[in-house]
Amino acid sequence: MTVLSRLMERLSNYAALNAEVLPYFLQVEAFSKLNNAIGKVIESQEDMPILSAVTLYSSLLKFTLHVHPDRLDYADQVLGSCVKQLSGKGKINDTRATKEIVSLLSAPLEKYNDVVTALKLTNYPLVVEYLDNETKRIMATVIIRSIMKNNTLITTAEKVEALLELIKGLINDLDEPQGLEVDENDFEEEQNSVARLVHMLYNDDTEEMFKIISILKKHFLTGGPKRLKFTIPPLVVSTLKLIRRLPVEGDNPFGKEASVTATKIFQFLNQIIEALPNVPSPDLAFRLYLQCAEAANKCDEEPIAYEFFTQAYILYEEEISDSKAQVTALQLIIGTLQRMHVFGVENRDTLTHKATGYSAKLLKKPDQCRAVYACSHLFWLEDHETIQDGDRVLLCLKRALKIANSAQQIASSGQGSAGSVTLFIEILNKYLYFYEKGIPQITVESVESLIQLIKNEESMPSDPYAESLFASTLQFMEFQKQKGGAIGDRYEEIKV
């Protein structure tokens, strides 16, 4: 057995170095002769160890891939013979044997640098089935690394299904013996590799691409809750990319009759994100809902965008309780809502009212102040005349000033940190922004009085950051004056 295996290895190496001998190998039908010889050796040794048999077939496969690289049927035949030898043996627990099977399965990947070619081998997944769960995960990682290394795109739903079956050791909870758990770092690395793989599954045809992401959804949602926070985000991103490739309804000759529409895909997105709050990953679901809302905005789908925002608000109210997480979440809400143009007056008022309400309820006064003045941008968008309400901009800024004053009083009484004069300077910058935009409610007098208030703060010299920020603000105002023109004239009116 060892002699035969080494003979095939030497012949493989010789063929790799001397291409001129390949016609001779074909002429003498070397593959058939070696295959028959292996069959006779195995037949003559009924108690041959699995390791020995797999080693023979591994050597034959490598020989076949070198000498007959275009004959996938030969490679599949070798794998089929290996399956026949393994049948009835159950999962292979011999460490050396499993390593040899991994070597056998890795050979086509190394030769063709293309997983798609390996997917054409019908007996390939049958060999994988004889591996134990740990080795299946190793083999799945080898397959994914091959895809990433060679930038291999898997372009059809059929091939994606076959691939996911091959790597199911990473995307499904397998029956593990009690007490055997995967190392947490290894698990995260494995799931990150699956996440990267999602972006290699692609087709230019929108219908085929929707089939691909539907297959991914089917496998990922049954993969166990621990995996969802890794696998759902790339699936959402891939789906959002598909939405951007859809023709606008006027350009689509099929209109709503098309099998893949934006509405259908948004329903699909909602279904997969709904699984996340139960993982639990409410913060992740929150972010994805906002991303989907923005995508619906670009598709002019107001009801869908409003529903995604509603789901994000529900998560904010019911699941996000940490004060720092609330601040971050509110920044995302305000930033996303500011970019939305699809909402009518009623829906936009409802959402902005909620956002400003959330701002005033944050735990810390400085956080309240910053969130409230950030909300001012929700009421004045330059490129949307219907969203230009100077009164509400001013109201937000006045509320922010009131909260900043309260924070200053708390600081001066020793109940909080000093230096809240920074808040007044930040609000001044907002006043200047809207003053420059020409909002009539933001007057010269209001800007000047705020500057005077900041100058009068006794804590100013003891706060280097605030001092630097105020100096930069005044420098900016002077720079705007030097510009001349309409902007320069407006800043000339402000007496510092």
Can you characterise this structure?
With 496 residues, this protein is mainly alpha-helical. Helix content is 70%, strand content 0%. The longest helix is centred in the C-terminal third of the chain and has 23 residues, at 390-412. It is found in: Membrane. It is a peripheral membrane protein. InterPro entries: Vps35, Vps35_C.
* Principal-axes shape call: elongated
**Rg from Cα:** 33 Å
Uncertain runs: none
From the N-terminal CA to the C-terminal CA, the straight-line distance is 95 Å
Major sheet attributes = none
Helix content: over 70%
Order of helices and strands: HHHHHHHHHHHHHHHHHHHHHHHHH
Number of strands: 0
Strand content: under 5%
* Structural class estimated from helices and strands: mainly alpha
Question: Which secondary structure elements does this structure contain, and how are they paired or packed?
Answer:
Elements: H1 2-17, H2 22-27, H3 30-44, H4 50-67, H5 72-86, H6 95-112, H7 115-119, H8 124-128, H9 133-149, H10 157-166, H11 168-171, H12 184-198, H13 206-221, H14 225-245, H15 262-273, H16 282-298, H17 302-318, H18 323-338, H19 345-360, H20 365-375, H21 390-412, H22 421-436, H23 444-455, H24 464-483, H25 485-492
Helix pairs in contact: 1-4, 3-4, 4-5, 4-6, 6-9, 9-12, 10-13, 12-14, 13-14, 14-15, 14-16, 15-16, 16-17, 16-18, 18-19, 18-20, 19-20, 20-21, 20-22, 21-22, 22-23, 22-24, 24-25
